[in-house]
Design goal:
Helix content is 13%, strand content 46%. The chain is mainly β. It has a single domain, classed as Lipoprotein localisation LolA/LolB/LppX (outer membrane lipoprotein receptor (LolB), chain A), CATH 2.50.20.10. The strands form two sheets. It has an eleven-stranded antiparallel beta sheet. A two-stranded antiparallel ribbon has the order 1-2. Helix 1 (98-109) packs antiparallel against helix 2. The radius of gyration is 16 Å and the shape is globular.
Amino acid sequence: MRHFFSPLLFLFTLHCPILHGFELPWANQKHIQGNFIQEKHLAALSRPFVTQGKYHYSPETGLVWNTLKPVNNFLLINQDGVSEKQADGSFKMLTTDANFSAMLLPVFSGDPQKLTQYFKISENSKGLTLDPIAPKVSSVMQTLDLVITEQALQQIILHESNGNVTNIYLEANTQPKEKGQ
């Protein structure tokens, strides 16, 4: 259970793109990073499977999803697909399906044009609901709910076609990186 693709981001910005009346405060940020807690609710289990870790998004690299607990796992999601860091430091491609990456990365970049290219978007009481347009993805994912506050993307709720639900709670690190880090 180490391959969980569920993500999104946040941060303050002076010029926030607006999508369906909601500002996307994490948009226009070059580098977004923070911590996550992910709860995967499986129909077969009474309790969720919980993981914790760190994430980092940049347009140049893509999305780094580093699970630290209960096991260490390092995923890189970019325009080439999804790869996993191996013990020797090399990366093994898990999927080269660029459609999945092309749909996931706009969620983290907050690019309204790309989001509307891959999702049918509607408002809900706490933010936005994204319904995938691509049949290949909609066979796995029913909807993606984004909980948006004034400052950030706070939560991603992934409703899978098989009835499983993944809640991802995001906490942005708003501290600038020191030189040399």
